[in-house]
Amino acid sequence: MDLAARHRDLLLGEFGTIRRQAEAALSLFDEGATIPFVARYRKERTGGLTETQLKEILDRRDFFAKIEARKATVLKSIAEQGKLAPDLEREIAECRDPQRLEDLYLPFKPKRRTRAQIAREKGYEPLADLLRAHRPASGDADAMAGARDILAERIAEHAPTREWIREHTAKHGLLRSKKKRGAEGDVSKFELYLDFSEPVPRLVAHRILAIWRGEREGVLSVGIETDAAPILAQLDRTFNRTGSPHRILWQETERDSYERLLAPSIETEVRSRLWERAEEEAIRVFAANLRNLLLAPPVRGEAILGVDPGIRTGCKVAVIDRTGRFIENTVIYPDKVDALRPLMSRHGVGKIALGNGTGSREIEPLLRALGVTAVVVSEAGASVYSASDAAVREFLELDITVRGAISIARRLQDPLAELVKIDPKAIGVGQYQHDVDQEKLKRELDHVVESCVNAVGVDANTASVELLSYVSGISRPVAENLVARRPFRGREELRSVPRLGPKAFEQAAGFLRIPGGANPLDASAVHPESYCVVERIAKRLGRAPASLVGAEIAVKPEEFVDDKVGLPTVRDILEELRKPGRDPRKEFVAAKFDPAITQFDHVKAGMVLEGTVTNVTDFGAFVDVGVHQDGLVHVSELADRFVRDPNQVVRAGQVVRVKVLSVDAARRRIGLSMKQAPR
């Protein structure tokens, strides 16, 4: 079996009971299918695998592709040295653990000139072989020292030994951090870790991330401590022999190998494993928060007045109509807020979106007095968008501050459509987002955006290039061509878009909606390839296909299954006909901030407040209660039960009631509880 075939076999072997489904999914991905398309329109072939399962299959495929590429390099290197024994070749070929692979390669890996290498050059390897066989041997001091160096390196490169010590250290090690000697500047943000220790298995992601950052910034000194006694005992059981004439020499060599070679490299590997685990958790938390923000409830069918707050320079105001189109802008000062009434009346403004920047809390009660619901929205990333090429193209003639006000209004009206225009990393819902691997982070966040966009669907005639470029099968150049070619009267016209070929049409058509066209199905999630099923259903009922859209249909889905269309697809079609173009996002609800609590100094322990969750981490949730400083609901205060994952209890954008537990004025921290707040 060649490496490629073995790679696929090892990969599929991981999926056990869903092996056949995983194999079908891989085949679809090989054909150019996307996760949203496979999850929505190829359920028969995959047995209904979810997007999460499909993402796992893709991730594992990429993982195995990398490890197989590394195997090829390792095998080539060892073969060129003439040392590739059949057993070693088989062990490498079957390996699926990157660390294990590196352990197997270590004895053959080109390395700098070590003490052992110098000893070999002096001809001391035969003596080392005699000592390894526990046979009588002797030599001068230099020869014996050189032989010991060779043996110490062999011990350190013994793959099973490295694996045992690594697992032992990961299980029993103690991570310790302390203030680094000579550390300068503000160390207060690392106060918890200036004299900190915790068993390695109990370390949680946010602590690992904080400690590693403190080390990078030169504030903390970090290390992993391990009791050497059980490790040395294991080495002695492995390499020494009862009655050996060199028993003491072996014990000294084992200690030297561990202290000089094994301990430093194993600590590095365990720390690397800890970092990977923390990084994975940080990216997962960021992705979950981003998903919740993107799928936040929109304000449907209302004109919105966006306000970018400012005290000294005035508030920049912009009005958008119910479709998000910019209408008018102005500047007002806090003492002239009433001047907005004619503007709001003229354009039928239904809600006010107020950016949460400086001055927002002072302006908010004045806006509420206008008799229209005012909602505070996050400005995170708004300045990035305002200066972007996309904003300049759309509003070339407008000042950058006006673009910001428009973006604030659109964030309330349709968070998904507006936030996709911004680099997800600029939205500010991540945990140590700048510390993690940026390529991994981007890949995960792009997947989240793609998933959300396709779950909601996109109006092909009104969506921005940025939104269209996340549609299944649509690249940015194709998205630009779509915008240049529209308006479209039906999905079939999409085929005329340059560079949107048959495969791209297949992947995209079901997610691109065309409301008001000749065929009502074009505004639904029914894929054009399944229109024939709708026609068969209509024929059975003696009705026109268009009359089925939005109607309750009393048919048995099993009656329309054939060799091309399976039961899951028929059921999806019937559900979509009942609720065409349904939006998975919830109805909009705004937090009601206490009008008397507008500053940090107003917050007192015991108060019960309403607020909006702004960020969820693995240690709790941050909540905006309207005072320019988010409070923290620790994970232990989220619910009356043990909470392993805060994302299972709260989500970014959710409106919650909280009780104030503590107020730390010096550090500007507010401790909150959800479980103690009256229901």
Keywords:
13% strand, globular, single chain, five-stranded mixed β-barrel, DNA polymerase, domain 1, 26 helices, alpha/beta, 679 residues, Arc Repressor Mutant, subunit A, Nucleotidyltransferase, domain 5
Write up what this structure looks like.
This protein has 679 residues and is of the alpha/beta class. Among the domains are: 80 residues, RuvA domain 2-like (Arc Repressor Mutant, subunit A, Orthogonal Bundle); 111 residues, 2-Layer Sandwich (Nucleotidyltransferase, domain 5), CATH 3.30.420; 127 residues, DNA polymerase, domain 1 (Orthogonal Bundle); 74 residues, Beta Barrel (OB fold (Dihydrolipoamide Acetyltransferase, E2P)), CATH 2.40.50. Helices cover 45% and strands 13% of the residues. The strands form 4 sheets. Strands 6-5-4-7-8 form a 5-stranded mixed sheet, sandwiched between helices. It starts with a helix and ends in a 6-residue tail after the last strand. The mean pLDDT is 92.
Summarize the entry for a quick read.
With 679 residues, this protein is an alpha/beta fold.
CATH second-level architecture of the domain at 452-578:
Orthogonal Bundle
The span between the termini is 63 Å
Q: Give the overall average pLDDT.
A: 92
- Rg over C-alpha atoms, rounded to the nearest angstrom: 32 Å
The helical percent reads 40-55%
Strand portion, in percent? 5-15%
In CATH's first tier, which class of the domain at 452-578 applies? Mainly Alpha
Order of strands, widest sheet: 6-5-4-7-8
